[in-house]
Write a structure and sequence with these properties.
Distance between the termini: 6 Å
Radius of gyration: 22 Å
Mean pLDDT: 97
Oligomer: single chain
Number of domains: 2
Strand order of the largest sheet: 4-10-9-8-7-5-6
Bound molecules: pyridoxal-5'-phosphate
CATH architecture of the largest domain: 3-Layer(aba) Sandwich
Number of helices: 16
Shape: globular
CATH topology of the largest domain: Aspartate Aminotransferase, domain 2
CATH superfamily of the largest domain: Type I PLP-dependent aspartate aminotransferase-like (Major domain)
Largest sheet: 7 strands, mixed
Structural class: alpha/beta
Length: about 425
């Protein structure tokens, strides 16, 4: 970044500061990953100069014959990776992928069922502070209090009672497999559309270690970040019969010009996610999450739903009498980043919480194996027991730094100069 260094040294220093933070810390935020350097190259590529609207062969601007090739390549790769009939890779984010599907099939005030945010869903699944909850009549389903799995019976009862036009599932903090077939059957029985937001688990789906919702859902939305480990954006998969309405839902329904540089990076993301190396990475991500879960359980913390089938753990801290906020802050102090998170039926407020959410994608990309999870688990335990003890936390900072050196970011093969 030598040009930036000269023309905007202040911003350059901030970029370096963030690079150093990423290098020297341990990242356990479940939605994060480290992208391959090719993704950064493509996101910073000359495609950023081109403006276009519409889709390949149907553009509102001239000069699109090259970007058409790129977008078609990305579409074909997405379809092949997830075995889908149609793909739209233009959504600027996961939220906009969801907005585009809603805009394709719903009218304002239509009734929709979605998983509650405080029980694992996402803001765009009907939360009242979000556009989804303001525009549409979302009814929330939740988890079974005993199993902490989706309460499919409640979902079915609500579906029969409210006759929604669309049922949405998928989540930001749901560690387990979702029974897509069961929800699809419920949707079919009442003549509703069925949409799965697989943003968190798309990489696991691509690797064949999480059920593929494409088989059951009319619409599947996702991000290319999180477990897919790629570009910062969204995409939609659907059956061919919905292709036109989904495309219209994206443009002109909810977006303007396409982010071609990001779409090029998505095309790369889909290619990489089809490799054996990526499959092995995803398998290790899940093994690491399961190992870390066991260690935290041995220490006496409680895992929501008892464990995980994915990259994600939702940890109930109440057995140790600490809050999500306190542990998030103390872990951040020693260099481990996690986020405080509501647990199902949480008695605490959203800014305090009784839980933390942990994900193992980023640390696994740095080469972590089960042995490293023992060190991570032990540091979390020590931090939990010494939240007020600054000397002890300062000592633990050293252990995090050593771990981050043992697991170098980009194998130490990337620098900003
Ligand atoms: C399940 C789910 N859907 C959608 C999104 C939104 O994605 P974005 O942040 O790209 O808008 C997220 C992001 O956290 C998510 O977890």
């Amino acid at each position: 970044m030598y040009r930036l260094k000269n023309s905007d040294p202040v911003l350059y220093q901030i970029v370096r500061e963030e690079f150093n933070r990423q290098k020297s810390g341990i990242e356990l935020i479940a939605s994060e990953s480290y992208v391959p350097i090719e993704i950064m190259e493509l996101q910073g590529s000359i495609f950023t100069n081109k403006t276009t609207e519409g889709f390949p062969g149907r553009r509102y601007f001239a000069g699109c014959h090259v970007v058409d090739k790129m977008e078609n390549l990305g579409i074909e790769r997405a379809k092949k990776l997830f075995n889908a009939e149609h793909a739209n890779i233009q959504p600027h984010s996961g939220s906009q992928a969801n907005q585009a599907v809603y805009s394709a099939v719903l009218q304002p005030h239509d009734t929709v069922l979605g998983l509650r945010l405080d029980q694992g869903g996402h803001l765009t699944h009907g939360n009242r502070v979000n556009f989804s909850g303001k525009i549409y009549n979302f009814i929330s389903y939740g988890l079974n209090k005993e199993t902490e799995l989706i309460d499919y019976e409640e979902l079915e009862d609500l579906a029969i009672k409210h006759r929604p036009k669309l049922i949405v599932t998928g989540g930001s903090a749901y560690p387990r497999f979702i029974d897509f077939k069961r929800i699809s059957d419920i949707a079919e029985s009442i003549g509703a559309y069925f949409m799965v937001d697989m943003a968190h688990v798309a990489g696991l789906v691509a690797a064949g270690i999480y059920p593929n919702p494409v088989e059951y859902a009319d619409f599947v939305t996702s991000t290319t970040t999180k477990t897919l480990c790629g570009a910062r954006g969204g995409f939609i998969l659907c059956k061919e019969k919905y292709a036109k309405s989904v495309d219209k839902g994206v443009f002109p329904g909810s977006q303007g010009s396409a982010h071609l540089h990001i779409m090029a990076a998505k095309a790369y993301t889909f290619k990489r996610a089809g490799t054996e190396e990526f499959k092995d990475l995803m398998k290790q991500v899940v093994k690491n999450a399961q190992k870390l879960g066991e260690i935290l359980k041995e220490y006496g913390l409680r895992l929501v739903s008892g464990g995980t089938d994915s990259h994600l753990l939702l940890v109930d801290l109440r057995p140790k009498g600490i809050t999500g906020k306190a542990l998030e802050e103390a872990l951040d102090y020693v260099g481990i980043t996690v986020n405080k998170n509501m647990i199902p039926f949480d008695p605490e407020k959203p800014m305090i919480t009784s839980g933390i959410r942990i994900g193992t994608t980023a640390i696994t990309i740095r080469g972590a194996k089960e042995e490293d999870m023992e060190e991570v688990g032990d540091i979390i335990k020590e931090v939990s027991e010494n939240i007020e003890n600054k000397n002890k936390l300062d000592f633990l900072k050293g252990r995090v730094l050593n771990l981050s050196k043992r697991l170098p970011l980009y194998n130490g093969d990337y620098d900003i100069v």
